[in-house]
């Protein structure tokens, strides 16, 4: 017991360590799980230096486990010496009626927002949890360099990485996503989740829609020191047309002049086979951004 | 429908392709599943050349899927241009009474033997299936170089790779294993499986025990052109003492002078986190052996 985060299991990999933790969350009013990968030099009680950190947000139905088993991040995190933090995708067993009834709402489907509706508000505060509480807990316990912090994710978690990154340029110095829900206000998944978590007033949804946030940043006139953005989208992604709208994201980036890029990847689908194929490129993208920020 | 192997799904990864197939097996008297990874140059109908092949045998409870999602072989198979073939770990839904009752017997637990007992014999012919039927099917359908063929596996599948490799030096030119059941005749898992599949006469078990096979090869006096053997064993493997007996394997290799090596890997457990950490070294080990054999 550290009082802050309790280790439940660990597995050595590529010389470093995967660790699975549970802790009591104030923001989500209950226990939350997360996973960590520490590169070899960061394992142990008193590492002599601090390491860049990447927060990974997973997609619908995932827990913190699948990215650790299928994402193939560890070989690159070991080699390039990056710490990886992977939260669960929602609170669990909160007692909210129907929380486990659908794969696209409630458990495994937080959409990384701070809920405002009476039903979900008491536990579904994932924005605050990830950007504040979890960040403060792991960054006080682990040898993390707070000046080299990035966020990335997949599908619902790609949406989460985009919106939490764009909303908090002072916190995240680099953003990337694999097949994100680029325009959730147009997507059936996003419309359902935002209606439930944020209520029916669509004005309230805009703060969690990547395309709106890009225009908001652009309208603010402050286009300096923005976190660079990279998105990869497979051409054979089964959710591309109905749910993802990465073309809208591409248009919003072009229209606003935000420092971002959406790449098409021919023949890849929505799975971790796709994610793992471009994992090293994303790691290198974030590290390059950290180095550029340090020089600026 | 090729008439031989039917594609059920495919996923592009690292430029190549993971393919999942089903086919009717004569040896096992029913449908069998297997997976394939083709490196980029081997995808398509008429590749211009043939590629080395590695057969992977998985452990207890696995299907052909987990190695494809968690083994992390594809990055290296893509880079080094190797075809990977991954059979399921047993027949399924055969109707044999109790086939799904235990994790360590029946479905997911074939131990890669040709069963001789009346109960299991009609379907559990995994030795014949892997060394003959599946090999002939995939090697007639895919651009495989039959002179560069290796076999490897994990736990029960590590045992499978060792015994099928040692029994068939004319077929397999290189053998490796992660945390194999090195002396199944001493292991509770092996004793149960061999009693059920091969009957109570322990003489009949020796042909599927790696330590016995090493001594048999040595006694034959033919120590030329043997397939080199590499074994990795994690020091924190939860099954090491009770089930694996990799120390016995090490002793048998030393005693017989077989060209093999058992390496201890400090801090690693029995999981795919361990396997993936040494995957590239195993791929390179097999490729080096293929090159040495070509020169000899």
Task: Describe this structure as you would to a colleague.
Two copies of one chain form a homodimer. Chain A is globular. The longest helix of chain A is centred in the C-terminal third of the chain and has 17 residues, at 279-295. The mean pLDDT of chain A is 95. Chain A has a nine-stranded mixed sheet with strand order 1-2-3-5-4-6-7-8-9, with helices on both faces. In chain A, β6 (144-154), α4 (156-167) and β7 (174-178) form a beta-alpha-beta unit. Chain A has ten helices and nine strands. With 296 residues, chain A is an alpha/beta fold. Chain A starts with 5 loop residues before the first strand and ends with a helix.
Brief sketch in words of this structure:
Helix content of chain A is 34%, strand content 23%. Chain A is α/β, with parallel strands linked by helices and 296 residues long. Chain A has a nine-stranded mixed β-sheet, sandwiched between helices.
């Amino acid at each position: 017991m550290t009082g802050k985060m309790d280790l439940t299991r660990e597995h050595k990999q590529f010389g470093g360590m995967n660790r699975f933790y549970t802790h009591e969350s104030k923001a989500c009013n209950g226990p939350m799980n997360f996973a960590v990968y520490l590169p070899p030099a960061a394992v142990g009680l008193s590492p002599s230096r601090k390491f860049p950190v990447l927060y990974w947000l997973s997609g619908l139905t995932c827990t913190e486990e699948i990215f650790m088993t299928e994402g193939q991040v560890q070989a690159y995190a070991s080699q390039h010496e990056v710490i990886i933090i992977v939260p669960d995708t929602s609170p669990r067993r909160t007692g909210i009626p129907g929380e486990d009834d659908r794969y696209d709402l409630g458990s495994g489907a937080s959409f990384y927002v701070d809920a405002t509706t009476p039903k979900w508000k008491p536990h579904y505060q994932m924005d605050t949890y990830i950007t504040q509480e979890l960040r403060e807990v792991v960054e006080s316990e682990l040898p993390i360099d707070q000046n080299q912090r990035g966020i990335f994710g997949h599908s619902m978690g790609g949406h989460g990485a985009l919106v939490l990154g764009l909303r908090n340029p002072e916190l995240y110095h680099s953003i990337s996503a694999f097949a994100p829900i680029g325009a959730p206000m147009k997507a059936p998944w996003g419309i359902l989740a935002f209606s439930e978590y944020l209520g029916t007033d669509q004005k309230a949804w805009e703060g969690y829609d990547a395309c709106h946030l890009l225009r908001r940043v652009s309208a603010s006139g402050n286009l300096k020191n923005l976190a660079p953005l990279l998105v990869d989208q497979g051409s054979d992604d089964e959710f591309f047309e109905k749910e993802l709208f990465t073309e809208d994201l591409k248009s919003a980036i072009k229209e606003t002049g935000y420092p971002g890029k959406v790449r098409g990847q021919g023949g890849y689908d929505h799975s971790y086979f796709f994610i793992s194929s471009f994992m090293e490129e994303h790691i290198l993208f974030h590290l390059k951004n950290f180095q550029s920020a340090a020089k600026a």
